[in-house]
Structure to design on (234 residues):
């Protein structure tokens, strides 16, 4: 089980900000999780089909697509940041 | 090092006084203040809302400051970033860097801002005459950060 958080434009598109996901055995990286989520339907496919830049964090650290996910992790997806 | 994420405004003068007085070894304090503009990408901005990722934001800012401390001899750093609803002329962000000599403080302050703009998890949503819109990240900010990696 992992916790997944969504921020900014993603949170608005999906209409919620957090969920628990039981990881299938073959979903063990950020790239694999994106593919897994993209299969959920149109709103998901639009976000996770690779056409938009979506950044990811695992346990509060920015990571790239090849980062490994394990049970208990907090994974977050969000658009490129725009603070400052 | 102090990192604060808050909805309240901040007093730049009071913060500088607190920072510079920690040591007579400090010869320079450099400050950067970010302020909300009333125009972005050609459209009037009436207000903006800043969202962030509580927990990660503080760690991200502290990590950026630690990287700066590894590159330059710095006596102290303060970073304050506001969240919530802000209007034109409101202060958004304050970075103060204190060091023995000014060159280190100038460089570290720029470094911290360049990394903050591209790594710290904040997102701005603007209210314009045409409605609300999320601010898009700028390539120029990525380029500003990448110059530190050369």
């Amino acid at each position: 089980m992992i916790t997944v958080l969504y921020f900014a434009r993603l949170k608005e598109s999906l209409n919620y900000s957090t969920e628990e996901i039981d990881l299938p055995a073959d979903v063990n990286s950020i790239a694999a999780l994106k593919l897994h989520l993209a299969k959920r339907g149109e709103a998901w496919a639009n976000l996770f089909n690779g056409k938009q830049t979506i950044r990811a964090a695992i346990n509060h650290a920015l990571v790239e697509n090849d980062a490994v996910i394990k049970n208990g992790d907090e994974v977050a997806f969000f658009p490129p940041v725009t603070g400052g | 090092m102090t990192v604060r994420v808050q909805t309240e405004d901040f007093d730049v003068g009071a913060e500088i006084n607190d920072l510079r007085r920690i040591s007579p070894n400090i010869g320079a304090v450099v400050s950067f203040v970010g302020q909300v503009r009333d125009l972005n990408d050609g459209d009037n901005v009436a207000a903006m809302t800043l969202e962030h990722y509580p927990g990660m934001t503080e760690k991200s800012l502290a990590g950026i400051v630690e990287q700066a401390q590894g590159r330059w001899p710095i006596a102290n750093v303060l970073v304050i970033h506001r969240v919530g609803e802000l209007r034109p002329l409101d202060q958004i962000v304050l970075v103060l860097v204190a060091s023995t000599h000014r060159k280190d403080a100038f460089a570290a302050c720029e470094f911290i801002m360049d990394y903050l703009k591209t790594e710290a998890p904040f997102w701005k949503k603007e209210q314009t005459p045409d409605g609300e819109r999320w601010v898009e990240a700028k390539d120029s900010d990525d380029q500003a950060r990448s110059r530190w990696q050369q």
Residues 34 and 48 of chain A are 6 Å apart (CA to CA). Residues 30-38 of chain A form the longest helix (9 residues). Chain A has a mean pLDDT of 96. The interface with chain B takes residues 5, 7-9, 53, 57, 60-62, 76, 78-84 of chain A (CB under 8 Å).
